[in-house]
Amino acid sequence: MFSSSTLVYSLSLFLSLSLLSFLFFLSSSRRDILSPADELDDLKLFHRAAVSSNNRRLISVSHTPPPKIAFLFLTNSDLTFLPLWERFFQGHEHLYNAYIHADPSSRISTLLSSTINAKFIPAKKTARASPSLISAERRLIARAILDDPNNLYFALVSQHCVPLHSFAYIHNHLFSARSSPQSHHQSFVEILSDEPFLPKRYAARGVDAMMPEISFQDFRVGSQFFVMAKRHALMVIKERKLWRKFRLPCVDDGSCYPEEHYFPTLLSLEDPEGCSRFTLTRVNWTGSVGGHPHTYGANEVSPRLIRSLRRSNSSLDYFFARKFSPESLRGLMEIADDVIFRD
Predict the structure, then answer these.
(1) In whole angstroms, what is the distance from residue 166 CA to residue 37 CA?
(2) Between the CA of residue 193 and those of 61, 68, 281, what are the distances in Å?
(3) Which of 40, 125, 179, 187 has its CA 20 to 30 A from that of 105?
(4) What is the CATH number of the domain that holds 288?
């Protein structure tokens, strides 16, 4: 017997599939790399994850399993810093899962070590200035929800991200109140409403393209990288209304960064008090080039750099940092035990 929420999801899925079937005939004339077939697959995945989560709530357990962090690696190349992440995860296999969204042609799937609880998720095509990155992030979230019900936080990182603290430090700070219910877990998603470039980003698809669902007063921007609580992760994969706007192709590619707009706008509208409004991933935008942040080279890696990157204006230190060059790995490994993982 279906629950009422299951019927709602099923109806929503049916309507979405019908809409996508219609969009199939329009897709050839759009500057859009999201194919109807890919979206159909994603909708089915999101539906399965949402229903699975609802069903699991009905199952009582005699003990409380340890909460886990799902690390979502979004990459379009080989995972350069895998050795550092291996050392970060070592000894904590029962407290995390890792999911890697990458092109099947990459070598990541063959590099995964048995010391990492990692699952390789073949990627669909992604590109900058495209909603395809939102799709990839939602896909990672849905896979993680389906895979393990004990994934209670979802940390999105990239192939250029490195940890700034030990695993124990991060896990303890996220789950400091072990008895706290999931409904009280806070998400760490940057939400900004007063940036000078906000008007151009809002109008990237056309002056009135976001109306009436999203007014300019409700539009938000923020960092692409987040640490999201499970209740918000479920909200993300169930959401349809805002997605129909953010999936529209942009007419101003220079102001179009959907992955930096969708999550802040959605969570600001749905649960502003449940979000920290800041990210836990440090990025240095000083001297950015072509929309890319500063990349730390091998000659910049030092204990002093790590300690400076940790510092934030919030109650928590930064957990992760980007963007690091492949050449910096050796220096990072040399100070891993004595600096990075020593809190």
Answers:
(1) 41
(2) 42, 32, 19
(3) 40
(4) 3.90.550
Q: Encoding tokens for residue 229?
A: 């609580």
Distances (CA, A) of 245 to 74, 139, 248, 342: 23, 18, 6, 45
Strand, coil or helix: what is 324?
strand
Q: How many structural domains is the chain composed of?
A: 1
Query: If you write DSSP's letter for every residue of 148-180 in order, what string do you get?
Result: -TTEEEEEEEETT-EESS-HHHHHHHHTSSTT-
pLDDT tens string 19-47? 544 444 334 334 567 888 989 999 999 99
Structure tokens at 213: 């669902």
Which domain range does residue 267 map to? Answer: 4-340
Contact 226/279 with Cβ under 8 angstroms? yes
pLDDT tens profile 285-312: 887 777 789 999 999 999 999 999 999 9
